[in-house]
What we know:
Elements: H1 2-9, H2 14-27, H3 39-57, E1 73-74, E2 84-88, E3 92-95, E4 98-104, E5 107-108, E6 113-114, E7 121-122, H4 123-142, E8 151-156, H5 162-174, E9 179-182, E10 185-186
Parallel strand pairs: 1-10, 2-8, 8-9
Antiparallel strand pairs: 2-3, 3-4, 4-5, 6-7
Helix pairs in contact: 4-5
Amino acid sequence: MAEAENYHDRPATMADCKRKIRHLQSKHEEPEETGINIYPMMDMMTILLVFLIQSFASGAAQVVQSEELQIPASTSQVEAAEALSVVISSSEVVVEGKHVLALRNGKVDPSLKQGGGNGWLITPLFNDLKLHRDRLKLIAAKNPQRAFRGEVRIIADKRTPFRSLGEVIYTLGQSEFGALRFIVLRQEGKKS
Protein backbone atom coordinates (compact mmCIF):
# COMPACT_ATOMS: atom_id res chain seq x y z
CA MET A 1 0.00 0.00 0.00
CA ALA A 2 2.89 2.25 0.62
CA GLU A 3 3.98 1.62 -2.93
CA ALA A 4 0.57 2.64 -4.25
CA GLU A 5 0.72 5.94 -2.35
CA ASN A 6 4.21 6.59 -3.66
CA TYR A 7 3.00 5.78 -7.16
CA HIS A 8 0.48 8.63 -7.08
CA ASP A 9 2.81 11.05 -5.33
CA ARG A 10 5.68 10.85 -7.78
CA PRO A 11 5.65 12.37 -11.31
CA ALA A 12 4.77 10.00 -14.14
CA THR A 13 7.62 8.66 -16.21
CA MET A 14 7.60 8.03 -19.93
CA ALA A 15 7.23 4.32 -19.28
CA ASP A 16 4.16 4.99 -17.09
CA CYS A 17 2.58 7.08 -19.86
CA LYS A 18 3.21 4.44 -22.52
CA ARG A 19 1.85 1.70 -20.23
CA LYS A 20 -1.33 3.73 -19.61
CA ILE A 21 -1.78 4.42 -23.34
CA ARG A 22 -1.35 0.72 -24.21
CA HIS A 23 -3.84 -0.19 -21.48
CA LEU A 24 -6.43 2.28 -22.83
CA GLN A 25 -5.88 1.15 -26.43
CA SER A 26 -6.36 -2.50 -25.53
CA LYS A 27 -9.81 -1.73 -24.07
CA HIS A 28 -11.08 -0.28 -27.36
CA GLU A 29 -11.60 -2.50 -30.37
CA GLU A 30 -10.26 -1.09 -33.58
CA PRO A 31 -13.11 -0.17 -35.92
CA GLU A 32 -13.25 -2.06 -39.17
CA GLU A 33 -12.14 0.03 -42.08
CA THR A 34 -15.05 0.57 -44.38
CA GLY A 35 -14.43 1.81 -47.89
CA ILE A 36 -16.65 2.77 -50.76
CA ASN A 37 -16.89 0.24 -53.54
CA ILE A 38 -16.43 2.43 -56.62
CA TYR A 39 -16.88 -0.28 -59.27
CA PRO A 40 -20.68 0.07 -59.50
CA MET A 41 -20.25 3.84 -59.69
CA MET A 42 -17.71 3.43 -62.52
CA ASP A 43 -20.16 1.19 -64.40
CA MET A 44 -22.87 3.80 -63.99
CA MET A 45 -20.56 6.59 -65.21
CA THR A 46 -19.58 4.51 -68.26
CA ILE A 47 -23.25 4.01 -69.16
CA LEU A 48 -23.91 7.73 -68.72
CA LEU A 49 -20.89 8.59 -70.86
CA VAL A 50 -22.10 6.34 -73.69
CA PHE A 51 -25.57 7.89 -73.43
CA LEU A 52 -24.19 11.45 -73.54
CA ILE A 53 -21.92 10.70 -76.50
CA GLN A 54 -24.84 9.27 -78.43
CA SER A 55 -27.19 12.13 -77.54
CA PHE A 56 -24.66 14.79 -78.58
CA ALA A 57 -23.93 12.95 -81.83
CA SER A 58 -27.60 12.72 -82.78
CA GLY A 59 -28.13 16.46 -83.33
CA ALA A 60 -28.49 18.01 -86.76
CA ALA A 61 -25.40 19.28 -88.50
CA GLN A 62 -24.68 22.78 -87.28
CA VAL A 63 -22.08 24.45 -89.44
CA VAL A 64 -20.83 27.99 -89.24
CA GLN A 65 -19.63 29.29 -92.55
CA SER A 66 -16.56 31.47 -92.67
CA GLU A 67 -14.11 32.80 -95.23
CA GLU A 68 -12.34 29.41 -95.09
CA LEU A 69 -15.50 27.27 -95.21
CA GLN A 70 -18.16 28.00 -97.80
CA ILE A 71 -20.64 25.17 -98.20
CA PRO A 72 -22.21 24.41 -101.60
CA ALA A 73 -25.98 24.63 -102.03
CA SER A 74 -28.42 21.88 -103.04
CA THR A 75 -32.15 21.30 -103.41
CA SER A 76 -31.94 17.90 -101.69
CA GLN A 77 -34.56 17.23 -99.02
CA VAL A 78 -32.68 14.48 -97.18
CA GLU A 79 -32.09 15.22 -93.49
CA ALA A 80 -28.64 14.95 -91.90
CA ALA A 81 -28.24 11.65 -90.08
CA GLU A 82 -26.18 10.74 -87.05
CA ALA A 83 -22.60 10.24 -88.21
CA LEU A 84 -18.95 11.10 -87.63
CA SER A 85 -18.34 14.71 -88.64
CA VAL A 86 -15.40 15.57 -90.94
CA VAL A 87 -14.91 19.23 -91.89
CA ILE A 88 -12.58 20.15 -94.77
CA SER A 89 -11.90 23.88 -94.99
CA SER A 90 -9.27 25.62 -97.08
CA SER A 91 -6.83 25.56 -94.13
CA GLU A 92 -7.52 22.40 -92.10
CA VAL A 93 -9.27 19.07 -91.65
CA VAL A 94 -11.30 18.74 -88.45
CA VAL A 95 -12.81 15.48 -87.16
CA GLU A 96 -15.55 15.75 -84.52
CA GLY A 97 -14.46 19.30 -83.69
CA LYS A 98 -10.77 18.41 -83.25
CA HIS A 99 -8.07 19.76 -85.58
CA VAL A 100 -6.35 16.80 -87.26
CA LEU A 101 -4.17 18.35 -89.95
CA ALA A 102 -3.40 21.64 -91.61
CA LEU A 103 -3.89 22.24 -95.34
CA ARG A 104 -2.05 24.68 -97.58
CA ASN A 105 -4.48 26.27 -100.02
CA GLY A 106 -6.74 23.26 -99.58
CA LYS A 107 -3.96 20.76 -100.33
CA VAL A 108 -2.43 18.09 -98.08
CA ASP A 109 1.30 18.31 -97.40
CA PRO A 110 2.94 15.38 -99.29
CA SER A 111 5.03 14.51 -96.21
CA LEU A 112 1.80 13.63 -94.37
CA LYS A 113 0.71 11.09 -96.98
CA GLN A 114 1.76 7.48 -97.23
CA GLY A 115 3.72 7.30 -100.49
CA GLY A 116 4.51 11.03 -100.62
CA GLY A 117 3.02 13.30 -103.28
CA ASN A 118 1.49 10.40 -105.24
CA GLY A 119 -0.02 8.77 -102.15
CA TRP A 120 -3.69 8.85 -101.21
CA LEU A 121 -3.66 7.77 -97.53
CA ILE A 122 -3.28 10.75 -95.15
CA THR A 123 -1.46 9.27 -92.14
CA PRO A 124 -2.52 11.68 -89.32
CA LEU A 125 -6.14 11.54 -90.48
CA PHE A 126 -6.02 7.73 -90.72
CA ASN A 127 -4.64 7.46 -87.16
CA ASP A 128 -7.35 9.74 -85.78
CA LEU A 129 -10.10 7.92 -87.68
CA LYS A 130 -8.93 4.57 -86.28
CA LEU A 131 -9.47 5.92 -82.75
CA HIS A 132 -13.00 7.06 -83.64
CA ARG A 133 -13.72 3.74 -85.37
CA ASP A 134 -12.59 1.76 -82.31
CA ARG A 135 -14.65 3.98 -79.99
CA LEU A 136 -17.77 3.61 -82.15
CA LYS A 137 -17.30 -0.16 -82.42
CA LEU A 138 -16.98 -0.37 -78.62
CA ILE A 139 -20.22 1.59 -78.23
CA ALA A 140 -21.88 -0.71 -80.78
CA ALA A 141 -20.67 -3.79 -78.88
CA LYS A 142 -22.23 -2.47 -75.65
CA ASN A 143 -25.43 -1.34 -77.39
CA PRO A 144 -26.60 -3.73 -80.16
CA GLN A 145 -29.22 -1.22 -81.34
CA ARG A 146 -26.41 1.11 -82.42
CA ALA A 147 -24.53 -1.04 -84.92
CA PHE A 148 -21.37 0.41 -86.42
CA ARG A 149 -22.16 1.37 -90.01
CA GLY A 150 -19.18 3.59 -90.79
CA GLU A 151 -21.31 6.66 -91.44
CA VAL A 152 -19.57 9.97 -92.04
CA ARG A 153 -20.84 13.52 -92.56
CA ILE A 154 -18.43 15.40 -94.82
CA ILE A 155 -18.66 19.17 -94.63
CA ALA A 156 -16.34 20.48 -97.34
CA ASP A 157 -15.56 23.93 -98.60
CA LYS A 158 -16.93 24.28 -102.14
CA ARG A 159 -13.45 25.35 -103.30
CA THR A 160 -11.74 22.19 -101.97
CA PRO A 161 -9.52 20.66 -104.67
CA PHE A 162 -10.86 17.36 -105.98
CA ARG A 163 -7.54 15.61 -105.19
CA SER A 164 -7.72 16.66 -101.50
CA LEU A 165 -11.35 15.53 -101.27
CA GLY A 166 -10.40 12.21 -102.89
CA GLU A 167 -7.53 11.71 -100.42
CA VAL A 168 -9.85 12.33 -97.46
CA ILE A 169 -12.47 9.94 -98.90
CA TYR A 170 -9.81 7.28 -99.57
CA THR A 171 -8.50 7.62 -96.00
CA LEU A 172 -12.06 7.35 -94.64
CA GLY A 173 -12.57 4.15 -96.63
CA GLN A 174 -9.30 2.64 -95.38
CA SER A 175 -10.44 3.23 -91.79
CA GLU A 176 -13.81 1.49 -92.41
CA PHE A 177 -15.91 4.63 -92.85
CA GLY A 178 -17.63 4.02 -96.16
CA ALA A 179 -21.14 5.44 -95.75
CA LEU A 180 -20.53 9.04 -96.79
CA ARG A 181 -22.95 11.97 -96.74
CA PHE A 182 -22.01 15.41 -97.99
CA ILE A 183 -23.55 18.31 -96.10
CA VAL A 184 -24.82 21.13 -98.28
CA LEU A 185 -26.92 24.22 -97.73
CA ARG A 186 -30.58 23.72 -98.45
CA GLN A 187 -31.66 25.88 -101.34
CA GLU A 188 -35.34 26.19 -102.06
CA GLY A 189 -36.28 24.71 -105.44
CA LYS A 190 -36.90 27.28 -108.15
CA LYS A 191 -40.30 27.27 -109.80
CA SER A 192 -40.22 27.45 -113.56
